[in-house]
TrEMBL record:
Xref: Gene3D superfamilies: paralog of FGE (formylglycine-generating enzyme)
Keywords: Membrane, Transmembrane, Transmembrane helix
Domain named Sulfatase-modifying factor enzyme-like: residues: 456-708
Name of protein: PEGA domain-containing protein
Species this chain originates from: Desulfosarcina alkanivorans
Record lineage: Bacteria, Pseudomonadati, Thermodesulfobacteriota, Desulfobacteria, Desulfobacterales
All copies of domain PEGA, residue ranges: 222-283, 293-359, 363-430
Length: 712
């Protein structure tokens, strides 16, 4: 029986088994080949089922992940200025949201943005757990490059000295003017250089790394100035700085200068020169005049008036300048003395001295005095035993006749040449002496003053007084020294004896310049120097002196003529019924009675805005002095006409209850001086009161003055 090999058996059968089978078979015979059957492939349905299962699983995963992302992400709005063209966000999963927003989970992210002409943006930010958030960022525009070309009259910038460039007020490093890296936008360029005008321009920088060029032309801030003179060789000084000698060419920056040409033996030539940039000037044909001669004039006695021709030169001692090569007539005069006339001729630049002794114009004064053995003092100088008569210069003298145990008799007398005068008195013993009645004196120019014997009074006004001002502090005042107060305000005619060219002018259409009208438009300094002039005419010690800072009062105050102190003025303005208590200079009641003074009234209604209702004084501007009712002390115009300068500096004084101020003269220094009294411009209850205080540091057309002095 034949055995066949079963090809369906496991081909991996062990070799021993095969061998044993071979040995048992008798014959191995071939059989037909039959290939093994292939394994079956799965069908289409199985594949489709598998794909559906996989897809469903994947979708489920994405659905779960998406749901988780939606519930855990936050809405983030991107606010980027300007709007970029490219945006990228690194750091986590993001999803588009509504509008420009993104959905992002909390965490750290980095935003990248790009736009032409702007620097790339890299902005790190953190998304928090807030439901909605905004990320703001700004893109920086690329800088522009600016090259400055600086020129002046064909010169390059390197030829300029002190060159400085500023961009938006920030200095630019020198040498970098041709490659300025500037942010885009409007920029202010300023360029400065020595001796050139400042240059400025507004430039718009385009940015985007664009190169721009700006050409700046600097204008020279100087001009050439040439100066020539005849004769040549004069020293040229500009604002007192010597520049050289003529003929001279110099360069001056734009401005106004004081130019002076000086040459020995010639007058200094001066001019004001206005130099404009890049406009050359020429000062030619300056003919220098021979220098004035200098004449020092002294006299015995001092204080004599010197007239050079028709020109008032001043009071001796003084030095005057006179034109050389010509004869000059000088007249030296003083009240009570013969006028001396001298003719002088000076060489150019010469200095000479002229001394003149004036011959006194003498008058005889006879003395009849009881008891006869009294002593005499003249102008404070003890003359010894009283003579029967004395020849004296024809000027006012202070006479004192005294004897121990008797009341000293004081008077003033002006001798008259050719007319004898007599002083006849009987001295009174001290125990029977009575007060000397009020007297008056007459100063130079016919100015009359009246003796005032003051008492203690209250200065200022109470808070309840109608029209009161805050600077009218109540103060207890004691005036311990008798004084003379000017009966009238100083007139134009009287003041012109001191300053012949002074003009008070006009107020609108009304003149203020009449001889009898009060002088106005004078400064405090002019008024003070007028007082000194009166003192010099009588050899009295001056109350004021000139200093580098102006005119100031000397201390202690002597017996020379001066302006009244504020306290003296108010005492006189208030005086009524032997007491200084009147609210108004005319007494009580407002408005003022007829004839009380010159105020802003109906006659001035076309000149002044608010006249005094129902009052008419007949003078629309200033009236001649002394036209209205005098005060009980015989003083005129303490109310109205013109306001008056006082001696004191102005200050606001604090009140001190119970403190008495003795002879106050105001603060030691200040800028303004006291002005007291009303004027023809005033109609208000405040200004017309006796306590009204004002101040000024300049002249006014309603401000004048009167004169005062201590009696001893």
């Amino acid at each position: 029986m034949k055995k066949s090999i079963d090809h369906d058996q496991d081909p991996r059968a062990m070799p021993s088994e095969i061998e044993s089978r071979s040995e048992s078979a008798e014959t191995i015979e071939p059989i037909p080949f039959r290939p093994a059957s292939r394994p079956r492939r799965p069908g289409r349905a199985a594949v489709l089922k598998w794909l559906l299962t996989a897809t469903a699983g994947t979708l489920l995963i994405f659905l779960v992940a998406g749901t988780w992302f939606v519930f855990t992400a936050r809405r983030v709005a991107l606010d980027i200025t300007p709007q970029p063209e490219q945006i990228r966000i690194d750091g986590g999963i993001t999803a588009p949201g509504a509008g420009d927003s993104r959905l992002m989970r909390p965490g750290r992210y980095t935003l990248y943005a790009k736009k032409p002409c702007y620097r790339p943006l890299r902005h790190a930010f953190t998304v928090t757990t807030a439901r909605t958030q905004t990320v703001q960022a700004a893109m920086a525009r690329l800088n522009g490059r600016l090259a400055l070309e600086i020129r002046t009259k064909g010169e390059t910038a390197t030829a300029l000295t002190g060159l400085r460039v500023y961009v938006d007020d920030v200095a630019v490093t020198a040498g970098a003017f041709d490659a300025l890296d500037l942010p885009a936008g409007s920029r202010r360029i300023r360029i400065r250089a020595d001796r050139h005008q400042d240059y400025s321009a507004d430039i718009t920088i385009e940015g985007c790394d664009v190169r721009q060029t700006h050409r700046a032309v600097l204008v020279p801030d100087w001009s050439a100035v040439t100066v020539d003179s005849m004769p040549a060789g004069a020293t040229v000084a500009v604002d007192d700085r010597e520049m050289g000698r003529t003929p001279l060419r110099m360069e001056l920056t734009a401005g106004t200068y004081e130019v002076a040409l000086r040459l020995a033996g010639y007058r200094t030539w001066r001019t004001r020169l206005a130099v404009r940039a890049d406009q050359p000037l020429s000062i030619e044909d300056v003919v220098l005049q021979p220098a004035d001669g200098s004449l020092a004039v002294t006299s015995t006695p001092t204080g004599a008036t010197v007239m050079a021709g028709a020109r008032y030169a001043g009071l001796t001692p003084l030095t005057i300048a006179l034109a050389p090569g010509a004869a000059h007539t000088l007249k030296i005069s003083k009240t009570g003395y013969q006028t001396a006339t001298r003719r002088v001729t000076l060489d150019p630049g010469a200095e000479q001295h002229l001394s003149v002794t004036l011959d006194a114009r003498l008058g005889t004064v006879r003395f009849t005095v009881q008891p006869p053995d009294a002593e005499l003092a003249v102008n404070g100088r003890n003359m010894g035993s009283l003579p029967a008569s004395m020849r004296m210069p024809a000027v006012e003298h202070r006479i004192e006749i005294s004897k121990p145990g008797y009341q000293t008799h004081r008077t003033r007398i002006t001798p008259r040449p050719g007319f004898d005068q007599e002083i006849r008195i009987a001295l009174k013993k001290k125990e029977t002496a009575t007060a000397v009645p009020g007297e008056s004196i007459t100063a130079a120019g016919g100015y009359t003053l009246r003796l005032i014997r003051p008492k203690a009074f209250t200065m200022g006004s109470s808070r309840r007084q109608q029209g009161r001002r805050s600077n009218e502090t109540l103060r207890e005042i004691e005036l311990s020294r008798p004084f003379y107060m000017g009966v009238r305000e100083v007139s134009n005619a009287q003041f012109r004896q001191f300053q012949s060219r002074h003009r008070s002018g006009a107020f609108k259409t009304k003149t203020l310049n009449g001889s009898g009208q009060p002088v106005v438009r004078v400064t405090w300094q002019q008024a003070a120097l007028f007082c000194n002039w009166l003192s010099a005419r009588e050899s009295l010690p001056p109350v004021y002196e000139k200093t580098a800072g102006g005119v100031v009062a000397v201390k202690p105050m002597g017996t020379g003529y001066r302006l009244p102190t504020e306290a003296e003025w108010e005492y006189c303005a208030r005086f009524r019924n032997n007491r200084a208590t009147a609210r108004y200079p005319w007494g009580k009641g407002f408005p003022p009675p007829a004839g009380a003074g010159n105020f802003a009234d109906r006659s001035a209604r076309d000149l002044l805005p608010v006249p005094l209702s129902g009052y008419n004084d007949g003078y629309p501007a200033t009236a001649p002095t002394g036209q209205f009712t005098a005060s009980p002390q015989g003083l005129f115009d303490l109310a109205g006409n013109v306001a008056e300068w006082c001696h004191d500096y102005y200050s606001i004084i604090s009140g001190h209850a119970g403190k008495r101020h003795v002879d106050p003269t105001g603060p030691a220094e200040g800028r303004h001086h006291i002005v007291r009294g009303s004027s023809f411009k005033h109609a208000g209850i405040s200004e017309l009161r006796s306590a009204f205080r004002d101040y000024s540091d300049d002249r006014r057309d309603d401000l004048g003055f009167r004169v005062c002095r201590y009696a001893r």
